Amino acid sequence: MHSLAVFCASSDGTDSFIFEDAYEVGVFLARHKIELIYGGSKLGLMGQVARGALENNGIVTGVIPEFLKTKEVVHTGLSNLITTQDMHQRKLKMHDLSDGFIALPGGFGTLEELFEILTWAQLGLHKKPIGILNSHGYYDDLLEMMNNMVRKGLLREEYMNLVLVSGSILELYENMLNFKPMPVPKWMNKDQT
């Protein structure tokens, strides 16, 4: 695995442990020679991940839409900065540059990125591993909601296997290395008649 996209908040949040974990993810990626692909901001958890990687000689590529360059305060000290026209192009570019995806704590934008990339995997549009770093139980309620979707018959149980979850970046990374993608669902196979 040569590159990982990280989805996370552009806010600091109120939990110092989560803030520190974001920095440690950047450190981990740098020390394992994994390029960080992220949203390009110097603020919040996004800035922490980038700082952790950069301060440990990591390669960091930011991908930011033109209209967010001022709102998110673009990080000017990155290895690479790619500007896109809009959010859709940003997500597609991050997908194209990455060998896998990790969601750290975040808000609506982080969840939107996570669920879009999960949906693409469910539809067989990519076979890359997707991880959730459940930093200090941040995602416990979301994971319970996803399990409720399975219980209510609105999400097939095997699709939960698309989501790798751990509170440890090392364990999550090892699980991602061992990830076996699902076969493309039969109903998605164009050759089926």
Automatic annotation (TrEMBL):
GO terms for cellular component: cytosol. Its EC number is 3.2.2.n1. One of its GO terms (molecular function) is AMP nucleosidase activity. Belongs to the LOG family. It is an enzyme of class 3 (hydrolase). It catalyses: AMP + H2O = D-ribose 5-phosphate + adenine. GO terms for biological process: cytokinin biosynthetic process. This is Cytokinin riboside 5'-monophosphate phosphoribohydrolase. Keywords: Cytokinin biosynthesis, Hydrolase. It comes from Antarcticibacterium arcticum. It comes from the Bacteria.
